[in-house]
Amino acid sequence: MRLVVVTQILTLLSAGAMAGSVAAPCTPVRGSCAFYTDCLEANYHCGEEGYPLGYGNKYCNKFSDEQEKLSAEGKDWMLDTMVCLQTALVPYATGNTSTTCDELEHAAFATHPACYVDSGFCELPPTDWVAVVDIVGLKTLFESWDAFLASLEAAEGCLEAWTYLSTI
Question: So which domain of life are we looking at (predicted)?
């Protein structure tokens, strides 16, 4: 009888573990900012000024809160960009946490240009560009070397896209 009970408990625990792996906490969800707190900050403990809370979560929530400033295309871009930025950091969230908070921040900012451009930033109407700068804050774009480089690389990506489109 005990063996049957233990087997049933193990079966239930195994099923629960399998169910948990389907919706792993380090899997970004479109429209959610929880990845930064529940996964990155939980693993790295960088604090309020570190990238997970001080930038990733802060601006993810800021965009969510101020999305009415964006057009329909801008809102789609915002959601696509959120998922892209979080997905790019999944290896850091689920891998070896010997990465320092500074290294994590540098790696995170390095993902920004491609996520912005690949999600369609360059094709947005200029009113959305203004809204993005308003949401982020002009000062923020130049606040750190990594943020400045990410801004320049995104602008360069748009210039390359526009140059290519003008040749078609």
Answer: Eukaryota
